[in-house]
Design a protein that fits this description.
38% helix, polysaccharide binding, binds ligand G3I
C-alpha cells in the first residue's frame, strides 16, 4: 500500500488517528486525514464533559461532526471514552455513592445508545489503575462507588450497543514487568473468567523519556491477546519520533494476530498534546517525517 490505512488493511488491520472537530475546516489537516487513515478517535468530543455538560442534557454535535466525516469516507470510529475519572463535568465531579454510580451508568447507556451501530470499539473505561508499584485501582469518585464499577460500565455498554467492541484503555501499561500492567492483566483475566463483556484492551502507548518503549512490549501485547481479547494501540506518540522505535511498535503489533489496529494521537506535531516533543508522523506543515516512512515500510514488509 501507499498510505498508512491501505497498508494496514492489507495486513487485516487499521491505522487511525485522533481527530479534533474544530480542525475539520483546516484543509491541510483533512487532506492528510482523508488520505492516510481508516480509523478515527475523537480526541475530546466524546468525553463526559463534552457529551453530558449538564446532568441529563446530552450534547453530541461535535462528536457527530467527526463520526459523520469519518463514516461518510469509509473510516471507522473508536469511541473515547464513556467512564473516566478525568474530564468530568462539574455536576459529576461533585457526586458520590449510589447517585454517582447511577449517573455514570446512565451516561454509558445514553451515549452508547445514541451512537449504536456507528462505533467500531468503545473505550468503555479509561485509566482506572494507579501509577507506581501498588498495582491498585486509581482512587477516584468512580472507584469510591465500589470496586465493581468497571464491570458495571461494561455490562451497560454491551446492553446499549451489542455490536461495538468494548475496550479497557490505559497508559503506562506497555512494560510487561510493571505493576500497573500486571494489575490490568489480572483484571482482564478475571473479567474473561466471569463472563464480564470485554472484547479488547487499549494500550495508549505515549512513549517518552520517562516511560520509554521497551522490547517486552510485544510480550505485553501477546500476553493480553492470549486471554482472548483483541489488543489495540490507541494513542501512540513517541517523544522525538524515532523512526526505529515507530518501526518496532508496528512490527510488534503485526507479530500479534489479535493486535488489530494502531492509532496515533494526532496527525501533525502541531496537533499533539505534547507538541514540543515532536512525537508524531507529520511535521507541523504536513510533511511526512522519517518515522512516517518507517511505519509505512514496516506495514508493507511485515
Ligand atoms: O475546549 C476548551 C476551550 O474552550 C478552552 O478555552 C481551553 C482553555 O484551556 O480549553 C479547551 O479544552 C481543552 C481540550 O483539550 C480541547 O483542546 C482542555 O483544556 C484540555 O485539557 C484538553 O486536553 C486534552 C486532554 O486529553 C484532557 O482531556 C487533550 O486535547 C487530549 O489530547 C488528551 O488526550 C488524552 C486522552 O483522552 C486519554 N489519554 C491521555 C491523552 C493525553 O493526555
Amino acid at each position: 500500500g501507499t498510505t498508512l490505512g491501505a497498508s494496514a488493511a492489507e495486513k487485516g488491520r487499521y491505522f487511525g488517528t485522533a481527530v479534533a472537530a474544530f480542525k475539520l475546516s483546516d484543509s491541510a489537516y483533512t487532506t492528510i486525514l482523508n488520505r492516510e487513515f481508516n480509523m478515527v478517535t475523537p480526541e475530546n468530543e466524546m468525553k463526559i464533559d463534552a457529551t453530558e455538560p449538564q446532568q441529563g442534557q446530552f450534547s453530541y454535535g461535535s462528536a457527530e461532526q467527526i463520526v459523520n466525516h469519518a463514516r461518510s469516507r469509509g473510516m471507522n470510529v473508536r469511541g473515547h471514552t464513556l467512564a473516566w475519572h478525568s474530564q468530568q463535568p462539574g455536576w459529576m465531579q461533585n457526586m458520590s455513592g449510589s447517585a454517582l454510580r447511577q449517573a455514570m451508568l446512565n451516561h454509558v447507556t445514553q451515549v452508547a445508545t445514541h451512537f449504536r451501530g456507528q462505533i467500531y470499539a468503545w473505550d468503555v473505561v479509561n485509566e482506572a489503575f494507579a501509577d507506581g508499584s501498588s498495582g491498585a485501582r486509581r482512587d477516584s469518585n468512580l472507584q469510591r462507588t465500589g470496586n465493581d464499577w468497571i464491570e458495571a460500565a461494561f455490562r451497560a455498554a454491551r446492553a446499549a450497543d451489542p455490536g461495538a467492541k468494548l475496550c479497557y484503555n490505559d497508559y503506562n501499561t506497555d512494560n510487561w514487568t510493571h505493576a500497573k500492567t500486571q494489575a490490568v492483566y489480572t483484571m482482564v483475566r478475571d473479567f474473561k473468567s466471569r463472563g464480564v463483556p470485554i472484547d479488547c484492551v487499549g494500550f495508549q502507548s505515549h512513549f517518552n523519556n520517562d516511560s520509554p518503549y521497551v522490547s517486552n512490549y510485544r510480550t505485553t501485547l501477546s500476553s493480553f491477546a492470549a486471554l482472548g481479547v483483541d489488543v489495540q494501540i490507541t494513542e501512540l506518540d513517541i517523544q522525538g519520533a524515532s523512526a526505529a522505535t515507530y518501526r518496532s511498535v508496528v512490527e510488534d503489533c503485526l507479530a500479534v494476530a489479535r493486535c488489530n489496529g494502531i492509532t496515533v494521537w494526532g496527525i501533525r506535531d502541531s496537533d499533539s498534546w505534547r507538541s514540543s516533543q515532536t512525537p508524531l508522523l507529520f511535521t507541523s506543515s504536513g510533511a511526512k517525517k522519517p518515522a512516517y516512512d518507517a511505519v509505512l515500510a514496516a506495514l508493507n514488509n511485515g
